Structures are given as C-alpha cells and as structure tokens.
C-alpha cells in the first residue's frame, strides 16, 4: 500500500471572512492510497484553531506504517485532519476494489440530495445585506458573526433575504452576556439555529441559560469523546469530518449523538467537492446540512459534486466512493 500526499490550492470566488480572520484561497491536502491496481482519494483541511498546519498534518500521514487498515488507523492517528483524509481514502479504495459504493459497504441506504446552507461572509452590515439580496433565492443562509456589534448585521441580512431560513455561526466570538442580549432578537428575526456562540473553553456558561433558539456545538464537539461535556449546554452537534478524523468516526458520532437526544448538523471546512463527498452520507436526514464549501470556490475538482434546487447531491464514482 502506497500513500502520497499533495498540496492543492483552490481560489475562492471572493474573500471569505469569519471572526478569526479572512482568506482568499482554500489550501487542502489530497491523500492518494494505492494498492498497485486501485487508488482511493481523500481530502482534508488542516485547521490552525486545532494546532494543525499543512506541514504537521503531512508529517502525521507520512509517518504511518506501510500496512494498516481502517480499524488500525483509529489507534495510529488522533481525531483530526490527517486521519480524515486517510480514512476517506481507505473507504474509497475499498469501494473501488469491491466494485460497490461506500454507502453499500457501510450498510447505509442510498443517499439523496440534501438542502445545504450557503454561508455569508462576515462584513459590514450594508455589504452583508448585499450578499443576502444576491442569495435570497437560496432556502437556507448561514451568517458568519462573532463580534459585539452583530445586531445591525442580523437586521441587514434578514432585510435582504426575508424569505430564507437563517442560521448564525459566532465561531466562539460572543461572550455569555452578548449572547444573552442577542437571544431575544434571534427569535424576533426568525433565526433557526445558533452555532457555537461561546468559546469552547467557556461554554459552561450555557448551563442553565435559556436557549430560545437551538444551540449547536461546533468547536466544542469533535468526536464521541466530546459528548459527555455537552450535556445541558447544547441541543445540536455539528459533525465535521476534519474534526472526527474521517467518515468512520463521523458515522459513529452521529449514531451516538442521536441516541443521546441531540439533533445533527453536518458541516465542513472550506474545501473542494472531494472533502464534501463523504460528508453527504453523514448528512442524510440531518437537521442542518452545511456542505457549501465548493459553492465558495472559483474552481473545483474535475468531477465536482452537483448543486441544484434539490441541494447537494451525493458523489459520482469518478469523484469518490
């Protein structure tokens, strides 16, 4: 078994800003695993928030032994970007060798399109309103927020897209007081979900706090080991494969979270269709699907995912799985 890691850069359609900073390119790692006859692919997006870099994740992958399987991978690498790309490449390789689709191998029903959120970049209120007007035809908009001065942004987006459903993502940018002050206005403006309002290290403040709008754990939820610490704070968990360390753990996290009474959101980093493809399996029947990474790009893989009025479609075999 041979593993190769390459760095790919995809230009974004426009500068993308969240509370932590801005970017104009998506830098990803593509993993290819071949057995000499068949090859499987996976993609990950190293994330500085979790101490990951392109170099560190490449190093983790290159340090893997010559022979291992998906079960062994769980102990060889921690949850994170490196394990994600390798795990997804192994699923793809297995599917190609078996002449089946990944969902068949995983015992899942054939996936269907899922309506996905489309993310509006953090900006001045008038610019966010313009973004909202441009995308008001979309059924679900996600607003990047996370500053003490977000009310004008919320008002502007709602005015620009009066018929769209709205979710907001604070990216850990609010304090408990800011969130408490905003909560009634979130209800008034028809916001349907709030993603990670407080820093993960400070989210105990959510205990006992009114949650008039469902609150979703993103940075506070990585894999199944995160679940015990979420009780009483969150209503929804955001499953991202770059956090879980691949499709294998993502499916297990979804199953366990549902058993414990959480709703499911499936999200993504800003990556190509190859990164989104495995996540479309996890997103089936999720409360919120947020797999819009390719929609934010100016360029994509040669055989990209299909996005249309039905949502994001599962991948064709030429892309993955």
Written description of the protein model:
By secondary structure, the protein is α/β, with parallel strands linked by helices. The chain is built from ten helices and 13 strands. The protein has an eight-stranded parallel sheet. Strand 2 (21-34) and strand 3 (39-44) form a beta hairpin. The radius of gyration is 19 Å and the shape is globular. The protein starts with a strand and ends in a 9-residue tail after the last strand.
Ordered list of secondary-structure elements with their pairings:
Blueprint: E1 2-18, E2 21-34, E3 39-44, H1 54-62, H2 70-76, H3 81-98, H4 102-105, E4 118-120, H5 125-134, E5 140-144, H6 151-160, E6 165-169, H7 176-188, E7 191-195, E8 215-217, E9 236-239, H8 241-244, H9 247-259, E10 263-266, H10 273-282, E11 288-289, E12 307-308, E13 311-312
Parallel strand pairs: 4-5, 5-6, 6-7, 7-8, 8-9, 9-10, 10-11
Antiparallel strand pairs: 1-2, 2-3, 12-13
Helix pairs in contact: 1-3, 5-6
Tags for this model:
globular, 3-stranded antiparallel β-sheet, alpha/beta, 321 residues
Number of strands: 13
Coarse morphology: globular
The count of helical stretches stands at: 10
Q: What is the C-alpha radius of gyration, as a whole number of Å?
A: 19 Å
Oligomer description: single chain
From N to C, what is the helix and strand string? EEEHHHHEHEHEHEEEHHEHEEE
Distance between the termini: 18 Å
Major sheet: arrangement of strands: 4-5-6-7-8-9-10-11
Into which percent range does the helicity of residues fall? 25-40%
- Report the β-strand fraction as a percent range: 15-25%
